[in-house]
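Before the break, one more example. Copy the sequence into your notebook; we will annotate it together after we see the structure.
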Amino acid sequence: MLSPIAAAAGHLLISEPFMMDPNFRRSVIILTEYSEEGAMGFILNHQSEYLLGDVLPDVSYSEMPVYEGGPVANNTLHFIHCAPDKIEGGIEIANGLYWGGDFEQVKYLVSNYQLSTEEIKFFAGYSGWTPQQLDEEIKEDSWIVTNKFDIETLFTLDEQNLWRKVVISLGQRYAHIANFPENPALN
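Here is what the structure looks like once it is written out:
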């Protein structure tokens, strides 16, 4: 079993290097919910073709990227942030990391350049698992679970290298995985 840590809200899921599902290939997911009813989270490193201004035309700061949070309900907009002093009502999912909050306040802050991409990340849709589904996928070594990460890493704009950086940060046991090709036939 690749993952010695159990899944929980506030933990990261790191896809195994040869995952074939295009929705999750080389993904890093922050879990926002995890219970016997299922799990939910957002893919941190799959930037969509949209900017915030494309999905919220009334917000003037349109340069913020929107990420593909997952294949479920991709007509919905979600966000995580590390700015609880600016955004009220968020749910703390990890030390200093929050999910959601007062959306009108977020729109105002973004429009007035009072939030940056180092503080907030937007997602179209989410990743979801039915009861026991994620646990089974972890047992099958589809995911590595970790609770060791820097919040700053989650807000990086270098999403192409996020998967690799997070894998390497897990230590020597996992570092070699970061160099595996996406297609094992190329090895």
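The longest helix spans residues 159-169. The radius of gyration is 16 Å. Try to locate both features in your own notes.
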